[in-house]
Amino acid sequence: MVPLIRGNPALFALCRDRVSAAHWRSLGATPVMGDLDKPATLRRLSGLAHVVFHFAPPAPDRPGDPRTRDLIGALERGASLPHAFIYISTTGVYGDCQGAFIDECRPVRPLTVRAARRVDAETRLRAFGARTGCRVSILRAPGIYAEERLPLERMQRGDPLPEAGSDPWTNHIHAQDLAQAALDALRRGRPNRVYNVVDDSRLRLGEFHELLARRFGLPLPERLPLADVRRKISEITWSFWSESRQISNERIKREFGRAWYYPTFASFLDSLAPETPKESSGN
After folding, report:
1. How far apart are CA 82 and CA 46, in angstroms?
2. DSSP designation for 228
3. Which residues pair with 31 in a beta bridge?
4. 69-97 tens-digit pLDDT
5. What angle do CA 146, 185, 71 make, to 5 degrees?
6. Which CATH superfamily is domain 34-147+170-201+248-260 in?
7. Can you give the pLDDT at residue 4?
8. Annotated domain spans of the chain
9. How many CB atoms within 10 Å of residue 227?
10. Between the CA of residue 89 and those of 22, 31, 131, 188, what are the distances in Å?
């Protein structure tokens, strides 16, 4: 995302170690040392920024999202507040919709602890926006992919897939499109507004993997009954595969007025150079 906004006079990046600080400095940002898991280190953020991009996930071993809570607390202690706050959440907050076509009006119903933490963050941020007048935009993203973020390792390992028709509907967004959506939210997002950031693909899980198999010359995964699949894959993978939904992107396309760099997953695969991209350990 930094290359998209490089050249701005003051771009700060919260860093918790020297390695990450050096990385962000090389991208043109000014490192600010702090740690979202150590609230006392966040005091220097008070009054620092006019705009906040918050993409850090909740801590995996704590209830709710203390990271977002403590970040909000640090910002509110400042003499001036940010006028815009952009947060990347997850479409997992909708839970299992049994393949239904849904939009942002669908009530949240998280079924995993991971998604419940995101609901906690969203709730805190919307209250922050209502309380302070800061323009909060919440971007709900599905499976994020890029050339280096493809589940090729899992396919090479031979993990099975559910039988056709019983496999879930999936939703996707390319990393570059998600980054651009965050910038568009800064310019065009409405106050306390939620946006689904999903591309135009309509793919079941099996169709997604079949596209990958054809593109990279991999064997098609074995199709098994759901009960058999569950016994052969990790719990984290099953938590994603056990939820099915088709998510509308009409709101973000209408209000942001931008076409995707990669409208579908197939269009992304068609854009790749002949050589195989780096393998990913993605689920």
Report:
1. 9
2. H
3. 13
4. 999 999 999 889 999 999 999 999 999 99
5. 90
6. NAD(P)-binding Rossmann-like Domain (3.40.50.720)
7. 57
8. 34-147+170-201+248-260
9. 8
10. 27, 24, 20, 18
